[in-house]
Amino acid sequence: MDLSSPLWLAHDTQLIVCCLLAIIAIIVLISACKLTPFLSILIGTFIAGIGAGLPPEIVAKAFSKGAGSILGEAGIIISLGAMLGALMAESGAADQIASTLLRHARGKALPWVMALVAMVIGLPLFFEVGLVLMVPIIFVIARQSGQPLLRVAIPALAGMTTLHALMPPHPGPLIAVSALHADLGLTMLLGLSLAIPAVILAGPLYGIWLSKRMHVVEPAELGELFSAKVATRRKPTFAVSLLIILLPVLLMLGSTLAKVAMAPDSVLAVTLKFLGEPLIALGLAVIAAVICLGWSIGMARDQVGGVLRKSLAPIAVLLLTIGAGGGLKETLLQAGISDTIGKVATGAHLSYLLLAWLIAVALRQATGSATVATTTTAGILAPMMAGLAATQSSLVALAIGAGSVFFCHVNDAGFWMVREYFGLELKQTLWVWSVLQTIVSVVGLLGTLLLWHLLV
Predict the structure, then answer these.
(1) Is residue 3 part of a domain?
(2) String of b and e for 137-171 (b: at least 16 CB within 10 Å)?
(3) Given this model, what pLDDT does residue 230 score?
(4) What does the alpha-carbon distance between residue 74 and residue 315 come to, in Å, rounded to a whole number?
(5) Are 228 and 141 spatial neighbours (Cβ–Cβ below 8 Å)?
(6) How far apart are CA 166 and CA 100, in angstroms?
(7) Which candidate, 121, 96, 161, 138, places its Cα nearest to that of 250?
(8) Residues 374 and 357: beta-carbon distance below 8 Å
(9) What is the band of 229 on the pLDDT scale with cuts at 50, 70, 90?
(10) Cα separation of the two ends of the chain
């Protein structure tokens, strides 16, 4: 991109510089000054917004809007997931699932089984939903198996995030498929062929390598939440325990089927889509857990209520941090970061796949949102992609999805979820989450380039 071009304004350069300064400030405030992530991101947001020319009151309103938006979605999901996880731990359901998995997968096989389980759970679920369901299982399995926490956790994280990036009907790939008029079935098939090697490299292999070099202990507060037990007349069976944790998966899978295979206005389709909303699916799972993992096994009503209440305290810091990340994202969007990166893309002369991946990477780094990166990139490229063959359109859509998860950092809600759930330091979170996602992103790009060479 020629920065002397009339398309490129001084504001564009200023905005990119301010975005970089804000990210550096956040990292320094957290790592060197030891401020809380929420306060650090808030300060970084004002550095970026005011530096980019937004009035302070607009920055404050943008921050509030972004924080409220993400907490209205992810916050409720995380809260319901914490309730469900606490009930599974208190009742012994998590132990039942962990013990059964360990009977069939011990030692070297365990990371591979965790990756497979995470892929199954992550197929219909948003990453945030899958993570809150998997965290108590990860803690219990690591505790019972005696294996390092990262050796169990990283394969699970890789399985869920890879499916979220590369497999419709997750929002990012589905948006790209729609914008580029790609074939949904073909994109799913090609996406699965890319997801398998990405999960293998970013999951079991990377998890085994990193766990030998980085020692992470179970965080005390969440570890206690997911290990406490109350005395009951009996323990839930494995079948009931598995059904409870898979209930949101089944409901959201039903919603997916309704969207792709049923008449949109039919009663069955409308019902399945309603039940498959993340809020409804997780809410029903919590109610089912109260009945099946609480009352029916002899837990008193006040005990069940106590479990639900105490599950919310450990996630308060996490919710504030995620909200702050949403505020930073909204401020950068209002400052015009998407338009600035779009100008860079317009002046670039690269192959379709590499261009799509690079634009998505740049937008994700700037905004912290895979959905924003995917939507904006697909919108920028759609006019250029008219007339592409079905396979080409599908591969471009997958390249966008791969780029949207490259090196997710401090403006990413998932970054802070992983940090708080696993009690990591900032540097450790970069190794665990940012590098993991980068592996998925790069494998996705290389896979699309290889398939383009073989199939086009």
Answers:
(1) no
(2) bbbbbbbebebbbbbbbbbbbbbbbbbbbbbbbbe
(3) 64
(4) 12
(5) no
(6) 30
(7) 121
(8) no
(9) low
(10) 28
Predicted confidence band of residue 62 (pLDDT cuts 50, 70, 90): very high
The number of CA neighbours under 13 Å toward the Cβ of 346 is 16
Cα–Cα dist 119/203, whole Å:
11
Q: Is residue 2 assigned to a domain?
A: no
Indicate the length of the chain as a whole number.
Answer: 456
Least confident of 4-13, 21-30, 197-206, 297-306: 4-13
8 A C-beta contact, residue 183 and residue 397? no
- Residue 136: name the closest of 102, 94, 106, 105 by CA: 94
In the prediction, which pLDDT does 403 show? 95
**Which tokens is 418 given?**
């992983």
In a domain, 374, yes or no: yes
Query: Considering all CA atoms of the chain, what is the largest pairwise distance in Å, rounded to the nearest integer?
Result: 75
Residue 305, domain extent: 65-455
Phi and psi based region of residue 412 (left: phi greater than 0; alpha: psi -120 to 50; beta: remaining):
beta
- Residue 349 maps to a domain: yes
Q: How far apart are CA 303 and CA 305, in angstroms?
A: 5
Residue labelled with tokens 């008193």: 300
Q: Which two tokens stand for residue 91?
A: 């009742």
Domain boundary among 36, 64, 92: 64
Please name the amino acid found at residue 51.
G
In sequence order, which ranges of 336-412 are alpha helices (DSSP H)? 337-346, 352-367, 370-381, 390-403
Q: What is the dihedral of CA 14, 17, 21, 22, to 10 degrees?
A: 60
Q: What is the dihedral of CA 18, 23, 25, 26, to 10 degrees?
A: 140
Query: Are 363 and 373 a contacting pair, CB within 8 Å?
Result: yes
Nearest to 422 by CA among 196, 180, 169, 214: 214
Do residues 444 and 193 touch, judged by C-beta distance below 8 A?
no
Closest CA to 37 of 429, 453, 416, 432: 416
Number of domains in the chain: 2
Closest residue by Cα to residue 76 from 315, 375, 397, 325: 315
Q: Token pair for residue 231?
A: 């005395």
CA distance 328 to 346: 26
Q: Determine the residue type at 320.
A: L
Q: Pick left, alpha or beta for residue 408 (phi over 0 → left; psi -120 to 50 → alpha; otherwise beta).
A: beta
